Every structure is written in structure tokens, then in C-alpha cells.
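[Discussion] Sanity-checking designs against the backbone

I'm trying to build intuition for which residues belong where. Below is a C-alpha cell string of 287 positions. I'd appreciate it if someone posts a full sequence so I can compare it with mine line by line.
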């Protein structure tokens, strides 16, 4: 995609007129029009301003710079790089601090980067092949051999995940996110919207050996990250929606602690490759 086409596509996707974008970027509608028609070649600083005005993710900002003929300005560092050791330590601290409740970190494709010990509560009965690295958290949640048989409100929860992934896939048309979205959508049952529909903001109702768990989730991102890898990480934390769920998770954590007494810490960490190095679909479990 050349720069005029790339700029026009991103502007229209965000439902902005040329004047809207011009005001945001501190330029004129005429200049935006000239750039979109190819009559004017923007400078590097103008491309950065346009990307910021469009609130593009860092990966897309680099792509817009490349389309304009400039080198990317945002680095993409492997999580295993020593430079990101403080970030890994911070993630471990957050995951441990969320115990006895489950919490995970995933990359842009939903591949598991890290998880705390309570993650195993979500994985009861999940087929081993779905838990073989690289683990895709979205696939584990919706695959028929994953969590799906235990989810009491599967239609609503599947709709929640599919819709969230659909929004992300709009930034990756024809790419792996689009393929994953199509796969997950095939697992989700039709969910007719009635007059009392309140959206998919509903607790996850999950059957367990100790009783039904009712969980709500929060998603945290690195809002001020200037590295592509960090900007695409999502930390999803599960919280009990009632006292019964809190009691079950606390009791299970106590049992895990008793079983693990005297053994070294064995944090579950599945390091996913970056988006460009993720394994092709035919090599991933469950496809």
C-alpha cells in the first residue's frame, strides 16, 4: 500500500473527514487532500503527526512511515531481550500480586506470554494439545475441546471474545487476526439480540469441580509504551463476581501452596514470538 492510499484508508476507517484530520494534525485540509492524491510528499515529522492524530497503534505508525519512504521510529524488541528484563519482572510482580485469582498476559494474536499459578483453574479439562506451546488463550476459551463445555453462558461469552477480536482484526485485514477471528466465530453459536440485550458485559460463568465460578475481567495495556512489542501486550485479570467464587479460588490457592511446599517456584511462562514470527496456522493446535 502506497502512502496516499494508506493515509486515506486509515482516515476513513476512523470516520474522519479531511478537515477533521487537518485540525487534529495542525495543518490544512488542502494539504491533506494533496497528500492523499499523491500531489504532495509529506516530511517525516508530518507522517508522525498524522499517525498520532489518527491514534494508530505503534505497529501501524511504523507501517505508515514505511509507506511514506521513511524508516520506522518505534522499536520492536523481543521480550527475552535483556533490555526488557525490568518489564518482565514487573509483569511477574503483577501476576503474583493478583493471586489467588487468575491472570494472564497475551500478545496481539492472543498467544500466552505469561500466566500466574491460578491459570490452571481455567484450564480444567482442556485438551492437552491446546495447552502445548504456543498456547492461544482465545482458542483455549472457545474451542470445543477447550473451556467451552464448562462455560455456562457460552453464547454470551463467545460473543464477547469474537466481537473484541473483530475490532482488533480491522487493523489487520487479511492477516492472522482475521483468520483467527474467522476460526473463533465458527465455534460461537448464534446469539440473537433481544429487546433486553445489555451487550456482552456479563460475568464468565464457569463450571468447576467445586462449583460454579462467576468471574469478571479487566484488560490492562501499556498505554505509554514506545516499543511495539510492549504496546501490543494485554494483561487480562479475572476477578470474583461473588463471595462464593472468591472462597473457591482462595481454597484452591491454599491447596496449591500445600502441594508445592518445599518445591522451587515453577511459574508457567509461554513466551510467544512476535506477530511476524508466530507459527503458521497449520502448525498451531486446534486449527
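Best answer:
Here's mine. Compare freely.
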Amino acid at each position: 500500500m502506497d502512502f496516499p492510499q494508506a493515509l486515506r484508508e486509515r482516515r476513513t476507517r476512523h470516520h474522519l473527514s479531511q478537515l477533521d484530520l487537518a485540525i487534529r494534525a495542525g495543518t490544512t485540509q488542502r494539504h491533506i487532500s494533496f497528500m492523499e492524491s499523491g500531489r504532495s510528499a509529506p516530511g517525516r515529522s508530518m507522517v508522525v503527526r498524522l499517525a498520532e492524530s489518527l491514534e494508530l497503534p505503534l505497529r501501524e505508525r511504523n507501517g505508515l512511515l514505511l509507506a511514506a519512504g521513511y524508516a520506522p521510529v518505534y522499536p520492536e524488541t523481543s521480550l527475552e531481550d535483556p533490555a526488557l528484563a525490568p518489564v518482565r519482572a514487573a509483569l511477574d510482580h503483577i501476576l503474583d500480586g493478583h493471586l489467588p485469582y487468575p491472570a494472564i498476559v497475551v500478545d496481539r494474536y492472543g498467544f500466552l506470554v505469561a500466566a500466574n499459578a491460578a491459570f490452571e483453574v481455567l484450564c480444567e479439562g482442556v485438551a492437552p494439545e491446546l495447552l502445548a506451546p504456543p498456547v492461544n488463550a482465545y482458542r483455549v476459551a472457545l474451542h470445543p475441546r477447550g473451556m467451552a463445555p464448562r462455560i455456562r453462558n457460552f453464547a454470551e461469552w463467545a460473543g464477547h471474545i469474537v466481537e473484541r477480536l473483530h475490532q482488533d482484526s480491522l487493523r489487520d485485514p487479511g492477516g492472522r487476526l482475521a483468520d483467527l477471528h474467522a476460526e473463533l466465530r465458527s465455534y460461537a453459536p448464534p446469539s440473537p439480540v433481544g429487546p433486553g440485550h445489555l451487550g456482552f458485559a456479563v460475568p464468565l460463568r464457569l463450571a468447576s469441580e467445586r462449583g460454579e465460578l462467576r468471574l469478571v475481567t479487566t484488560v490492562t495495556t501499556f498505554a505509554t509504551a514506545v516499543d511495539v512489542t510492549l504496546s501490543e501486550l494485554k494483561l487480562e485479570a479475572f476477578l470474583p463476581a461473588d463471595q462464593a467464587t472468591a472462597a473457591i479460588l482462595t481454597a484452591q490457592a491454599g491447596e496449591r501452596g500445600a502441594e508445592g511446599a518445599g518445591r522451587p517456584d515453577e511459574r508457567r511462562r509461554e513466551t510467544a514470538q512476535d506477530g511476524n514470527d508466530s507459527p503458521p496456522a497449520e502448525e498451531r493446535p486446534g486449527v
